[in-house]
Design brief:
This protein is mainly α and 209 residues long. The chain has a domain of 143 residues: Tetracycline Repressor, domain 2. 71% of the residues lie in helices and 2% in strands. Keywords: DNA-binding. GO terms for molecular function: DNA-binding transcription factor activity; transcription cis-regulatory region binding.
């Protein structure tokens, strides 16, 4: 593949990611992607294949970006203060979703049965990440830092649901206007609420600062 070909592939995937995140797989056509990328359908098909292959490439790229960020965050999890480390992990995840809003959007479309005929993505991409976070937190539960009665997997999912919902939908203010991650006050308030909720759910020994 030449550098020019590589550049076209990168552009196609970037444009497809944006459209799939906004409209979903079922609501996006290859023609829309080609037009947004300034190409014809034949060029898109030549570089990445059909719509299904392009969607798989988009989701693979999204997974690799998320996995790299999570691996980096988990590398910092062991430390002298597991409570601080857990809160840092939550901050890292929230910051990742705020900085990469297309990734929560892609998965939220799947929550609504988008691309329902493509069934392997959750098993291949999501479950291993959830399992790795649970495994990283388990020593804190075994040592008593986290309440042993807590369902770690469901706690992790609760964070995912909350963060994705805020990243995609935001919250309504007193006037009924939607405030999302781009609103610093809303983001700061959500972050504080998320930390407090997680802290109390895990029954951690000290209240977060």
């Amino acid at each position: 593949m030449t550098s020019a070909d590589g550049g076209q592939v990168a552009l196609i995937i970037e444009v497809a990611t944006r459209l799939f995140a906004a409209l979903g797989y079922d609501g996006t056509s290859t023609r829309q992607i080609a037009e947004a990328a300034g190409m014809n359908i034949a060029t898109v098909n030549y570089h990445v294949g059909g719509k299904r292959e392009l969607y798989l490439a988009v989701m693979e790229r999204a997974h690799q970006v998320e996995k790299a960020a999570l691996d980096q965050a988990l590398d910092r999890l062991p430390g002298d203060d597991p409570v601080v480390a857990i809160h840092r992990l939550v901050d890292d995840y929230l910051d990742f979703c705020v900085d990469n809003p297309e990734i929560p959007a892609l998965w939220m479309h799947r929550w609504l049965s988008d691309a329902s005929d493509i069934t392997e993505l959750e098993r291949a991409y999501v479950q291993p990440l959830v399992t790795s976070v649970a495994a990283a937190l388990r020593p804190a539960a075994e040592s008593g830092v986290i309440d042993g009665a807590v369902d770690l997997e469901y706690t992790i999912w609760t964070v995912i649901w909350s963060v994705h919902g805020f990243a995609k939908g935001g919250v309504l203010d007193a006037e009924g206007r939607r405030r999302g991650p781009g609103d610093r006050a809303a983001l700061r308030r959500f972050r504080a609420h998320l930390h407090l909720t997680l802290h109390r759910t895990l029954a951690l020994p000290e209240e977060p600062a």
